[in-house]
Amino acid sequence: MDHFLAAYNEGDPRHLDHCLHPDYRHPNPAVERGIEGMRAAVRRWSAAVEDLRLTLDDLIVEGDKVVARMTFSGRQVGTVMGIPPSGRRFSVGLIDIFLVEEGLLAQHWDQMDLLGLHRQLGALPA
């Protein structure tokens, strides 16, 4: 998980080369399959969020699954999920369940507090 977190926290998608399976599968069909799709996702988030932090709060490993409860925070300076730049700070929880294949993260499913994100960025009333 260290390299996965570092990719976001340092804005350097090269960290993903050390932790992702070459055929990585993202739950969003708009994200290209493979490491390059995740590299692009890291670049998009890094460009849109200043002071981006992805903090690991809990980690559970069982069999071929890794569950990470994390906090995602920063200040929106670019478009995020169709929401124009607001300059607002945000902090939301997310849970990712990763499938491990050949010792690498091969797929994940995620749940992010999208309602909280939209409210904190001013796209919905509080």
From TrEMBL:
Cross-referenced InterPro entries: Cyclase_SnoaL-like, NTF2-like_dom_sf
UniProt superkingdom: Bacteria
Pfam families found in the cross-reference section: SnoaL (PF07366)
Entries under PANTHER family matching the protein: ESTER CYCLASE (PTHR38436:SF1), POLYKETIDE CYCLASE SNOAL-LIKE DOMAIN (PTHR38436)
Protein name: Ester cyclase
